[in-house]
Amino acid sequence: MQTKVLMVCLGNICRSPLAEGILKSKTSSQHVFVDSAGTAGYHIGNNPDKRSIAVAKKYGIDISGQRCRKFNFNDFAQFDIIYAMDLSNYYDILALSNEKGHIDKVKLLLEEGSSSVREVPDPYYGGTDGFEKVFKLINQACEMIAKKINTNQTS
Ligand code: 4NP
User: Do 85 and 119 touch, CB atoms closer than 8 A?
Assistant: First the structure.
């Protein structure tokens, strides 16, 4: 069985492209399909932010080919788990459906793992330090997600 995971932030150019790339790097595409989207449509069709591409590259992950898209209602049916980077993304996603089956799929990414913070901060208006910090937070959570998914696979 293939688990379908969607990573969501606001712009889909900084945090969720990193989350997509990091989780893909820890799982096999046979078992896990990973995608990302933004709750806003400011950057549709664009590649990830240069600073996200750079920090990913530093850790051996290529996210340069990703394209920004906006989260849409069909994503509730398409994906098994929808991870929001922060509470604002989380509530923006929940505002699009009141079906229990949809709501139950939406989680905060940092609920996975043992991070002391609940939200992946928005690094867009900050410096490169912020991207390094965001990479580490996402990486920790994805490590836990990959472990969980890999343990649940029977083949
Ligand atoms: P992201 O960061 O949600 O991690 O992709 C942002 C990207 C763009 C904007 C805000 C946050 N923006 O306002 O354009």
Answer: yes
